[in-house]
Write a structure and sequence with these properties.
EC number: 2.7.13.3
Order of helices and strands: HHEHEEHEEHEE
Mean pLDDT: 83
InterPro entries: BphY/WalK/GraS-like, HATPase_C_sf, HATPase_dom, His_kinase_dom, HisK_dim/P_dom, HisK_dim/P_sf, Sig_transdc_His_kin-like_C
Number of domains: 2
Strand content: 15-25%
Low-confidence stretches: none
Structural class: alpha+beta
Helix content: 40-55%
CATH class of the largest domain: Alpha Beta
Keywords: Kinase, Phosphoprotein, Transferase
CATH superfamily of the largest domain: Histidine kinase-like ATPase, C-terminal domain
Catalytic activity: ATP + protein L-histidine = ADP + protein N-phospho-L-histidine
GO molecular function, one term: phosphorelay response regulator activity
Distance between the termini: 46 Å
């Protein structure tokens, strides 16, 4: 049986794409470290100097700036370690319900889609890296808001334990994914066509899968049709 003459080229293309992702993650993360460190430092200095003179809302806003900068610092360090081939994972007990609501609130505020709804009651606490898993959720929920149908966006998150794993399902009522594209959505730098949409780098689902691999889990598209899509995330319990 003769070998497939296209196989070496496909392997080379995949390897080149992986290297491009690693260079992108390493460069972006490295360049962000310094400004993030300064934002966190100056926010802390302002809190120390002005805590007695600010009202409750102002204090809350300043603390939020410092916390978000510190979270972004941890995330960029994790990205740099991921690009270097040795992922830096810091697992802790995470309230999945609170994390999902927080990410959703940030995204709907940024996108100004007040009619969007999230159904996620009763999600458990899981042990994982909150920065990495929070970014996984952000990528999936962002896609649900971008690739929407004519109806108001609705996302449902459910989790169940099976054996030694958590299975987290994220469903939306979007336009669905054409069968011709379902094998490509996790490819680096590939973007699902959507007229009139400002396209990103095409790394959302790719990096989500990389993060989940670093966390010992994985992700796949479980179902998609004209009524919407459902992704399933597997994460180890311990």
């Amino acid at each position: 049986m003769s070998s497939d003459p296209t196989r070496p080229q496909e392997t080379t293309v995949a390897g080149d794409s992986e290297e491009r992702i690693k260079r992108f993650l390493a460069t972006a993360s490295h360049d962000l470290q310094s400004p993030l460190r300064h934002i966190a430092m100056y926010a802390e200095l302002l809190l120390d100097d002005l805590e007695e003179t600010l009202d409750g809302e102002q204090l809350q806003s300043l603390r939020m700036i410092m916390e978000k900068a510190q979270t972004a610092q941890r995330l960029t360090k994790a990205l740099m370690s991921l690009a270097g081939g040795i992922p830096q994972v810091t697992p802790e007990e995470v309230d999945l319900q609170a994390l999902a609501e927080n990410v959703w609130g940030e995204l709907t505020d940024e996108a100004a889609v007040g009619e969007a709804t999230l159904e996620s009651n009763g999600l458990p606490s899981i042990r994982t890296d909150p920065a990495l898993f929070g970014l996984v959720l952000r990528h999936l929920l962002t896609n649900a808001l971008i690739y929407r149908s004519e109806a108001a966006p609705h996302v449902a998150i459910a989790a169940e334990r099976e054996g030694t794993d958590w299975f987290i399902r994220i469903s939306d009522n979007g336009a669905g994914i054409d069968p011709a594209y379902r094998e490509r959505i996790f490819e680096p730098f590939w973007k699902l066509p959507k007229p009139g949409t400002v396209q990103g780098a095409g790394l959302g689902l790719t990096t989500a899968r990389e993060f989940l691999t670093a966390l010992g889990g994985d992700i796949s598209l479980e179902h998609s049709d004209e009524s919407g899509s459902r992704f399933i995330i597997r994460l180890p319990i311990a």
